[in-house]
Amino acid sequence: MIERTMKACIAVLALTATMASAFAPAPVNTVARHHARTVSTATPLRMSDKVFDQEAFIAESKTMRLKHLEEQAMFALKIAVENYGNAVFPNALIAGDVVITHLLHRMGYLQSGQAKVMVVDTFHLFPETMEFLREIEDFYGFKAEVFCAEGVPSGDKAAYDKKYGENLWREDIEQYDKVCKVEPFQRGLKTLKADCMINGRTRWQGFERAWIDQFENAPIGGGLAKCNPIAYWTLEDTFDYIAKYQVPHHPLHAKGYPSIGDAKDTIPIPEDGSTRFVNFKFEGDPKPWLDYASERKGRFVGLANKDGSTKTECGIHVAGAERTFDRDLWESGAVKNIASNEEALEIIKSGKEAIIAVYAPWCQFCQGMEEEFAKYAESAGVPVYKFRGDEEREFVSEHLNTKSFPTVNFVKSDGSVVKYDSEARKVEDFANFEKSFQSASV
Asked: Where is the signal peptide (predicted)?
């Protein structure tokens, strides 16, 4: 019994050796000899004396992969541009976007104007970003359409601060996204009559994007088609491609930034800037950039959504992001609306007493006092008004004592405006504020 078992084991070992020899790499001359004569199953094929060049194999594999990804991306761009009437590329000038810019140029779509390029200036970008835009416009021979916050001239940060406030992003990040990103983004698509939007999102950028395909319907703009030509690229693929073709790229990559957004909340990764992309190659350890979902780690730093969750999206690519509030405040009832600066001045100069609440519909504190202020207005002894001040910062600061929201004012008959300086916002608090002026006039 023991003897039969040992013979069976020897047979299995011989068979294993035969299978291993069959799959062992062999030079061409060895393979030829294999076919010329019968080789005993007990004698494995001899391995080549030549050492396998692993690095050369990896490099060749990368070349093959890039060629496939390039052809795939160009095919998607061809569909986007030639199958639709107005393909628009919102270019954020980050690594993936400069690859797309390069491909659009190679295909002749930038020169012909078949693909339009738009850029959203948030007024909080790094100075290098708009400078880089001018560089690639000259390099590739196209002109981007720049869109910014509504009612503000392009490039005029002072005008933006006057209208919306330089600290809007601190007051309400979602409203900032709406004013500085989502609204101008949508306006740009509408102005350029886009029917297909090209963008550089990839599955490698994180779990929120892990299932995107090369084509999808955009969550904004109804049935607008969205083309993601580099959806299946990793960030390593992107930088490999930039290096291979010497593609012009954002100068902040050389200072440690894997992705570039607003200067106020974008940092290098790692923070010491030890990973950099300089002269078309990496300096330092590239893993902090190239690991899955690491490209955007330096973005939205220190920002949180209203529900307390970590912010990972600017809002442009999120369904419903164009609305940061579902409705205006005091849409019905006794609180009357002031529709313009001129109307507000008329009320102030009318010689009649009034209460004016300066508010922002997205402000949680304004929302919090909505019900009590509405009840107060129903029994108030003077007309009660609301004036939306978040888009008229300079005016409400000058005429209605407003530095933050909400601000409640009593307008006296002599035209002076007195601010309510308490955080108490119940019906009786507003009523007592009004009565204090009646007492003073007696």
From this structure: 1-22
Domain boundaries along the sequence of the chain: 58-290, 336-441
Architecture of domain 58-290: 3-Layer(aba) Sandwich (3.40)
Q: What does pTM read for this prediction?
A: 0.71
User: Would you say the C-alpha torsion 148, 152, 154, 156 has a positive or negative sign?
Assistant: negative
Contact 291, 255 (CB under 8 A): no
For the 336-441 domain, the top CATH level (class) is alpha beta
Q: What is the pLDDT along the chain (442 residues), one digit of tens a residue?
A: 445 444 444 444 444 444 333 333 444 444 444 444 444 455 555 555 677 889 999 999 999 999 999 999 999 999 999 998 899 999 999 999 999 999 999 999 999 999 999 999 999 999 999 999 999 999 999 999 999 999 999 999 999 998 999 999 988 888 899 899 988 998 999 999 999 999 999 999 988 889 999 998 765 555 688 999 999 999 999 999 999 999 999 999 999 999 999 999 999 999 999 999 999 999 999 999 999 999 989 998 888 776 677 776 666 655 544 444 557 899 999 999 999 999 999 999 999 999 999 998 888 889 899 999 999 999 999 999 999 998 898 899 999 999 889 999 999 999 999 999 999 999 999 999 999 997 555 4
